[in-house]
């Protein structure tokens, strides 16, 4: 690939190895997620080893057996129905209605699980409430009797009068019979065993030997290392933007007086102005897009066409943003289209679709701020044409949905040697003030804070490199998903039951959009507004 | 329990108290050979919901262990809210089961949501505080609550519902009392260690109490230096969590019999703690105690001292093997910080004195 050559010279692809962190560091930056531990086989195995040490091996055995039981049911119908039961018409209808009766081997397995884990005095009896036991055993035993399967257990089920047809109602059994039980067991593991596990030597040994990529699968990057901010996420957002504001004020002519109280300066500053200024744009450009000069980015994952980096704050980050513990993500993607086409398509794409194919459910164009007409020259305080938009992200439980009110300004610049090669920029920041009352009333979700920048620079008349940097303040969840999805995509490992895998590469997706776009001109009011800022703001930086 | 853990790396330079199992193999051979008594292992035993883990949590707090990370508090938020939801679900299910209608239509709506879709994260929204409290105060739910001996309900129910305004808020941070009151069914084994002077360490072992959990006890019986057996005074009108048809007192007596007469504990100091004294005193004010004990004088049934004396006799009668002079009997309210501290201190002294004598 022609584009690839360029990237390898500029980024230390091969040199970035996963840093080996101590458990202390890992726990400082990541919150381990129970669900992910249960989903990732090596982590699950490690947790099961721990369970053995706390005398809870019956639980891991049970979970394994249930998994096996479910796998029997997932076999294609033709292969599992090697011998179907001789059922009468009534139950044929009855069972057939839901379409997924248990095959013999599955039913036998269900009985085995009941005998082994659920019955009183079972060899690996689980800790269950008697109602729960009764409910599930009732179903299983009636089926067992009905189909004439033998019970190892002398379980004298009331009301059963021998085999088969005399029982009027046979409870319907399907592959979900153990689901409630399983989630109950998982919940008690989570609340009772997971925290001690994270303190155990078994865990330490395991986690210290994991690659950073795996950490992103097993854990959520923690936004703040200081204890109070971990809890008070909302006030933290303000802190961060406040500091960002302080940092940025040095790079632009700032008319506000230093006597301002904290709140006062917030009111007049970066954070609170809907319109982006030249100074801010310059700052975002130098702080985010050109940050890679410091080579502090850690390569998270890469594919032929795309590299994803993460930056967990360092000294430089502290200087720029006032805090060390922030996480930024950067993706570099190469496209075989001109920078203009790609930029237009990305804008269109970004506000229609989303990074992960899932979270962005709607984007609304809110307001347009034209450039004040009486501005003289290009000063840092000069204001840019700015489009204000709202975005809402649907997050997975247990994270509440997020709303962003974003100010967006696009701009472009020419390469003097070749005026045809244009570099395009898009800058976004969250605005904290209330844009207007109608929007405000719509915001029932958590307000998110975001800073991001996009640069599309030409590498030839027909190819370009797009660099996107973002900081999303939502306890890392969105960005983590983002990284994780790409990891999943890269590994080609489709997780069972996951509905969100990228169907095509970023290039393919964009190509589709570019083709579509040229045919239909599908610009939304939103992307129109962004492109208008581009036209008005060109050559400003 | 186990949701409160000690972080070995956050206490500067001190000897760490570990709340996690100290080896992969708690019954490992080392203790048997190295009987130099630098470590005293104390088992907390008793049937389900007798208060073992509550006492264990209290001891952790006395020793500055317990919640050391804010992260742990965040995890505890979910556990507290799960308790709220579970209590609410159990109450709603009980109204159906006992055929007591929930009276107010809006409370019926709330009940529906609780059963079908409500999750812990929804409780961040303060409006749930009002809705759940209104449900709690509904005449139907209150009637079910009065009949709580007929189904399984946690002791913390009333406390949690009375504190909904704190819990249902995105600012909620669990307090120590919240943590003590929260019920988490212990599975398996958890332990912690702390210094008790003279270069000795006390290792306190907490275990699950339901029937299936008791099979696990045997694994560490041979390394024990003392047993603290808990039984709940307030369980006289309740049946088992794991067997709805079995009276809790009968189970406690049976378990006590098996443990106290176990040959492995013959030489071991043994403490019997009658827990939940606070709940018990409230309960006998409204419920008949003598109804459950044919041998008890009905005229004395409102007198807690007489009732406890009777219970003590019942339990001590079970002792056939263990020398009585190494058995100590006390009452306890494990949810009460001061009382727990005092009682545990006495227990510790008793064990140390017995050790010394030996």
From TrEMBL, chain A:
<feature type="domain" description="RGS">
    <location>
        <begin position="33"/>
        <end position="207"/>
    </location>
</feature>
<dbReference type="InterPro" id="IPR023393">
    <property type="entry name" value="START-like_dom_sf"/>
</dbReference>
<dbReference type="InterPro" id="IPR044926">
    <property type="entry name" value="RGS_subdomain_2"/>
</dbReference>
<dbReference type="Pfam" id="PF00615">
    <property type="entry name" value="RGS"/>
</dbReference>
<dbReference type="InterPro" id="IPR036305">
    <property type="entry name" value="RGS_sf"/>
</dbReference>
<dbReference type="InterPro" id="IPR016137">
    <property type="entry name" value="RGS"/>
</dbReference>
<protein>
    <submittedName>
        <fullName>RGS domain-containing protein</fullName>
    </submittedName>
</protein>
Automatic annotation (TrEMBL), chain B:
<keyword id="KW-0479">Metal-binding</keyword>
<feature type="binding site">
    <location>
        <begin position="206"/>
        <end position="210"/>
    </location>
    <ligand>
        <name>GTP</name>
    </ligand>
</feature>
<dbReference type="GO" id="GO:0031683">
    <property type="term" value="F:G-protein beta/gamma-subunit complex binding"/>
</dbReference>
<dbReference type="GO" id="GO:0005737">
    <property type="term" value="C:cytoplasm"/>
</dbReference>
<dbReference type="GO" id="GO:0003924">
    <property type="term" value="F:GTPase activity"/>
</dbReference>
<dbReference type="InterPro" id="IPR011025">
    <property type="entry name" value="GproteinA_insert"/>
</dbReference>
<keyword id="KW-0342">GTP-binding</keyword>
<dbReference type="GO" id="GO:0007188">
    <property type="term" value="P:adenylate cyclase-modulating G protein-coupled receptor signaling pathway"/>
</dbReference>
<dbReference type="Pfam" id="PF00503">
    <property type="entry name" value="G-alpha"/>
</dbReference>
<dbReference type="GO" id="GO:0005525">
    <property type="term" value="F:GTP binding"/>
</dbReference>
<dbReference type="GO" id="GO:0005834">
    <property type="term" value="C:heterotrimeric G-protein complex"/>
</dbReference>
<dbReference type="InterPro" id="IPR027417">
    <property type="entry name" value="P-loop_NTPase"/>
</dbReference>
<feature type="compositionally biased region" description="Polar residues">
    <location>
        <begin position="20"/>
        <end position="33"/>
    </location>
</feature>
<feature type="binding site">
    <location>
        <position position="186"/>
    </location>
    <ligand>
        <name>Mg(2+)</name>
    </ligand>
</feature>
<keyword id="KW-0807">Transducer</keyword>
<feature type="binding site">
    <location>
        <position position="53"/>
    </location>
    <ligand>
        <name>Mg(2+)</name>
    </ligand>
</feature>
<feature type="binding site">
    <location>
        <begin position="49"/>
        <end position="54"/>
    </location>
    <ligand>
        <name>GTP</name>
    </ligand>
</feature>
<dbReference type="GO" id="GO:0046872">
    <property type="term" value="F:metal ion binding"/>
</dbReference>
<keyword id="KW-0460">Magnesium</keyword>
<dbReference type="GO" id="GO:0001664">
    <property type="term" value="F:G protein-coupled receptor binding"/>
</dbReference>
<dbReference type="InterPro" id="IPR001019">
    <property type="entry name" value="Gprotein_alpha_su"/>
</dbReference>
<feature type="binding site">
    <location>
        <begin position="275"/>
        <end position="278"/>
    </location>
    <ligand>
        <name>GTP</name>
    </ligand>
</feature>
